[in-house]
């Protein structure tokens, strides 16, 4: 259980996250040096993942955050991205399943993350379905606009794939077609 002082330091660290990393890390080290704090562990995981690209330490901090409080929802929004980056798709799916089972999580965000996972696995039609679900359950116009742009991107990928398949089919047809020559 975190103390009031640790919670204040965590909020200060969170506030300074992307623009003053030195101050953010200093406050997080103080919080993490004391009691277990899911939020501080999650934020430290984000720093290792997003800023330092140290995936091993990031994974340890995200995992620690889930062990401290498996209902700390922010971890379910960031940890799957790390797992996708390191191509641990099975674990990413598991983390998302647990996130979906929690009442307090933002389902629109989770559907978006699942769509990214499916897109990474080159399952574009399923990714498109997840993006549509995300848009459907979203309560935020900014998120809906963002999802519209993601849908456009996935649709463009699907068009490229269709064009490539048509080219491959034409090559096969041409390779199998025998040309009649005057010498035959």
From TrEMBL:
InterPro entries in the record: TPR-like_helical_dom_sf
Protein name: Uncharacterized protein
Source organism of the structure: Kordia algicida OT-1
């Amino acid at each position: 259980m975190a103390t009031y002082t640790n919670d204040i330091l965590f909020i200060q660290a969170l506030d300074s996250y992307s623009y003053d990393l030195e101050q953010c890390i200093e406050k997080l080290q103080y919080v993490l040096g004391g009691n277990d704090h899911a939020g501080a562990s999650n934020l430290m995981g984000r720093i290792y993942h997003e800023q330092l690209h140290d995936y091993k330490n990031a994974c340890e901090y995200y995992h620690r955050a889930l062990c401290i409080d498996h209902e700390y929802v922010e971890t379910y929004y960031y940890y799957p991205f790390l797992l996708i980056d390191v191509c641990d798709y099975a674990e990413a799916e598991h983390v998302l399943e647990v996130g979906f089972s929690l009442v307090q999580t933002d389902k629109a965000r989770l559907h978006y993350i699942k769509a990214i996972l499916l897109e990474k696995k080159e399952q574009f039609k399923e990714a498109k379905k997840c993006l549509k679900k995300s848009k459907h359950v979203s309560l935020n116009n900014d998120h809906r606009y963002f999802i519209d742009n993601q849908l456009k991107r996935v649709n463009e990928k699907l068009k490229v794939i269709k064009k490539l398949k048509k080219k491959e089919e034409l090559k096969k047809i041409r390779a199998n077609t025998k040309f009649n020559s005057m010498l035959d």
